[in-house]
DNA sequence: TCAAAAGTGTTTCCAATACACCCATGG
DNA sequence: CCATGGGTGTATTGGAAACACTTTTGA
């Protein structure tokens, strides 16, 4: 390798994950409390340097998620790459940002193999984040808004069986506006990619709601053409 | 820097640009004929390694475009990052892909400072491309389709003054479907971000068309709310 | 006067919106 | 029987789609 090339092969590349979860309090993001420099003892997006011998950005992002939550088969997608010159104190580090959606019920902090703490923060109550993580988070939030109107990704944030009211609360939390109950149900059901499980809630102190599940097969049929969630 | 960190700082990062242009033949992409290894004498997307001392991905992508076309102030936006382990024969090279829209009329190959040739290829007649450039191109094409339905970026591909028929042909080429003349005009004019220049085509051998121009100020007003081009 | 493309209006249909009351369960 | 959230239907409106003929210019 000549000396000219040499100068180029001195960068590191990391991944950073914006992991969304949903519960009765609304939409949350999973942050870790950094146990190592730089920015030790700061809350930050979970991420890691990519192992150049073995990993692609995608595989590295999946590993971070797995180490942190113990979960496989989660929805994860690349957001964009950030590369400000001074974004990392140790040298030139580019970071490929990802966003992931997980079913909060399936996740337990105990399953984590990381020494650091991990904690859910409501998206409107985040601490200041190091590096350019604030910028990354904001970008992720916008992307989530955009995507949920175009793809049935909301289900990734809910338990396998869910009520229409839960689904409505989720859309409302993400899109930051409220929907009319009847119109919401009409629209969702007309899209025809969720189906009635025949089950109902139990031990609730009111009329129990029907439980629905997401039906990927129905959705796949629809996707020739696309749809909007524009309510 | 400890030895563990050292192992991470051995990557290179490049940018690759998918540059779209539009003329009477339809939608085209600008490719270069590589004058250097690897893949010397192959047609490829124009790109370059990022100078780690001075450039961000964004600035590097703009430089590639400027060197190639002599143009400043072109529409350019990041697509996504590709990082397969074996995508580059010289080592671990991640590439941040961009797409750009240029007004073909403003561009001349002569303005290029590059020794290699550059040439427009109709998007349906591309040669096989090296690295993962085919994958990058396909991704860019889909993104363009998606974006043009959401943002008034079509104008970036047309001369400053254009006819409604030209605009319609552009939308048809990108979205790969045909529109009804009357409905197209109604929709575009109702969006209210183009305005009549008062000028007309001349020396055409048929009724001359009115010339319109894009009116960014009108658009900005609209953007609180968004719109669809869903015709 | 002909060729070639520019330009224009109306009807039909469907999806988005707005809106208010009864139902099933547990306590 | 009451409190709590679940569940349902209709009328109105606005935008999307379908559709055919007249106008202006240069040759």
Quick overview:
The structure is a homodimer of 231-residue chains. Chain A has 231 residues and is of the alpha+beta class.
Which labels suit this protein?
homodimer; 231 residues; alpha+beta; seven-stranded mixed sheet; three-stranded antiparallel sheet; 6 helices; 27% helix; 26% strand; elongated; DNA-binding
Write up this protein:
The structure is a homodimer of 231-residue chains. The first copy, chain A, has 231 residues and is an alpha+beta fold. Helix content of chain A is 27%, strand content 26%. The first copy, chain A, is built from 6 helices and 10 strands. In chain A, strands 1, 2, 3, 4, 5, 6 and 7 form a 7-stranded mixed sheet that branches. A 3-stranded antiparallel sheet of chain A has the order 8-10-9. Chain A starts with a helix and ends in a 9-residue tail after the last helix. The model of chain A has no long low-confidence stretch (mean pLDDT 90). Chains A and B meet through β5 of A and β5 of B. Chain A binds a DNA duplex (27 and 27 nucleotides) through residues 163-165, 180-183, 185-187, 190, 201, 203-210, 230-231.
Largest sheet of chain A: 7 strands, mixed
For this entry, what is the oligomeric state of its chains? Answer: homodimer
Rg from alpha-carbon coordinates of chain A: 20 Å
Which percent bin holds the helix content of chain A? 25-40%
Order of helices and strands of chain A: HEEEEHEEEHEHHEEH
Number of strands of chain A: 10
Separation, N- and C-terminal Cα atoms of chain A: 57 Å
Q: How many DSSP H or I helices of chain A?
A: 6
Task: Write down the overall mean pLDDT of chain A.
Answer: 90
Beta percentage of chain A is: 25-35%
The outline of chain A comes out as elongated
Class by alpha and beta content of chain A: alpha+beta
Which residues of chain A form runs of ≥5 with pLDDT under 50? none
The most extensive interface between chains reads: A-B, 30 and 30 residues
């Amino acid at each position: 390798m000549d000396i000219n090339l040499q100068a180029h092969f001195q960068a590191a590349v990391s991944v950073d994950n914006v992991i969304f979860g949903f519960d009765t309090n609304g939409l949350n993001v999973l942050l870790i409390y950094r146990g190592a420099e730089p920015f030790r003892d700061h809350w930050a997006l979970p991420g890691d340097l990519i192992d150049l011998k073995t990993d692609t950005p995608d595989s590295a992002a999946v590993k971070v998620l797995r180490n942190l939550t113990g979960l496989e088969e989660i929805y994860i997608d690349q957001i964009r790459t950030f590369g400000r010159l001074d974004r990392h104190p140790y040298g030139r580090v580019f970071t490929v940002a990802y966003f992931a959606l997980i079913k909060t019920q399936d996740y337990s902090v105990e399953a984590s193999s990381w020494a650091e703490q991990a904690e859910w923060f409501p998206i409107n109550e985040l601490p200041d984040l190091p590096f350019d993580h604030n910028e990354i988070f904001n970008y992720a939030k916008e992307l989530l808004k955009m995507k949920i109107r175009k793809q049935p990704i909301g289900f990734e944030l809910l338990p396998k069986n869910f009520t229409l009211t839960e689904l409505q609360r989720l859309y409302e939390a993400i899109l930051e506006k409220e929907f009319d109950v009847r119109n919401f149900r009409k629209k969702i059901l007309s899209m025809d990619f969720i189906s009635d499980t025949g089950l109902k809630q139990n031990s609730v102190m009111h009329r129990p709601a029907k439980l629905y599940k997401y039906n990927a097969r129905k959705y796949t049929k629809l996707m020739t053409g696309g749809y909007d969630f524009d309510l």
